[in-house]
Amino acid sequence: MTRDLTTPTVPATAATSPATALPAPSAPAAPAAPAGRRRGWRRIAAVAMVAGPGLVAANAGNDAAGIATYASAGSQFTYGTLFFMVLVTVALVMVQEMAVRLGAHTGKGLGALIREQFSLRLTALAVFCLLLANTGLVVSEFAGIGAAFELLGVPKWAVIPPAAVLLWSLVLFGSYRWAERIFLIMSLAFFAYPVAMVLGNPDWGQVGEHLAVPHLEPGRDFILLAVALIGTTVSPYMQFYAAAGVVDRGAKPADYKLIRADAVLGAVFACVISLTIIIATASAIGGSGPLESAAQAAEALKPVAGHGAELLFAFGLIGASALAGAVVPLSASYAVGEAAGVERSVSRSFRDAPLFLGLFTAQIALGAIVALTPVDVIQLLIGTQVLQGLISPIVLVYLLVLTNRRSVLGDAANGPRYRIAATAVVVGVAAMSTILLVQTVLGWLGLA
Question: What would the mean pLDDT of 309-329 be, rounded to a whole number?
Fold first, then answer.
């Protein structure tokens, strides 16, 4: 349903017309608010009305795997990845802007546009990459739920199966929007990280230096984590979700400025939280090496919660993992449904939308089963983001080509300068992924 974003006007009546309405002597009219202030409040209200796809994607992006990756960056390299995260922030802003621009100006999701603009084989490649990345993400979300409850003394085998059934039921039979609000409220616990960052007394001189000055280490561990940071921040599903969310809102090209504001603010918000997680962890346990457990990741919250750090971390981890555990497979099902041109809606039955609902069910089941296996949770979470980082360049190439084409966007297509900047982002992400891939292969051959 299209939402009218214009400010309603009040028609003049006889009681308010200049000819008949005189101010009462005992009640002088209040001075009118300045026009600039009125326009400012209207803009804020309008942004609040359209806020959604960008902010939801940002919250889902700060999930179990994201928290583990950012915390590991702080514990392993202290402030060494901060400048890299600034670059990743710029990349995320540009990528999310291109995704919502496609949705606003074409009225179609990214999956549908890929199906229309590319060959069947290239469409199949995009769908395969998205499914591969999202399946790994779903596994990591259930692993995060299990790790959170283990902090509370509850074994994961007693929690993960009921959690999978609950998430599946909420989407198919319940009110997903109501459940999403609960998950978002629970994940607000991670707002403790900015507080922990300040209370942890970091070396602000080093923080500022690493934010402004590039820092790169040639070792495989640094490259591995850098690619994981790309994967968890510029996650492929976020582009599909952002475009589909804009389409679901019935947005028009005239609404693009407000939609862009939502996408940019959401991307910046996600990355600011990510930076505070890195800094807080670096201040608490920086230099201790890679994370080995969720309890170790919770150490960064001790300046805020003291001995209750594990409880606070577990609470936020449950909410963030549950939110992403529902959003990620649902976004993949929408994208595949768009690419296949079939019915896709949570309000449909299995008979009406067998591919859409069957794919959602399969992702939930597979994610829960794999998460129950005896794996190293932290390594699983970070490894998932490395996989996302390797797949991201492929999805970004599709996004770049589509936004460059005037046949798709007309005058809203990328201009010369934006095209150069966007190409640099894609090439940069691809270069990091290629370096990691080469290092991995050389390691298998005993040459690195």
Answer: 82
For residue 166, which phi and psi values (nearest 5 degrees)? -65, -50
Burial group, residue 295, by CB count within 10 angstroms (0-12, 13-18, 19+)? middle
Distance of alpha carbon 242 from alpha carbon 225, whole angstroms: 25
- Beta strand extents in 73-119 (DSSP E only): none
Distance CA 258, CA 282 (A): 36
Give yes or no for a contact between 168 and 312, defined as CB atoms under 8 angstroms apart: no
Least confident of 13-22, 139-148, 308-317, 339-348: 13-22
For the residues of 393-447, what is the DSSP string, one character each? HHHHHHHHHHHH-HHHHGGGS--HHHHHHHHHHHHHHHHHHHHHHHHHHHHHTT-
Token pair for 215: 């820092």
Is-contact 46 258, C-beta < 8 A?
Answer: yes
pLDDT band for position 35 (cuts 50, 70, 90): low
Question: For the segment 200-220, what is each residue's pLDDT rounded down to a tens digit?
Answer: 889 899 999 999 988 888 777
Compute CA distances 13 → 19, 23, 443, whole Å: 11, 16, 80
d(CA 438, CA 259): 39
> What distance in Å separates the CA atoms of residue 429 and residue 53, rounded to the nearest whole number?
23
Give the position of tokens 């920086």.
286
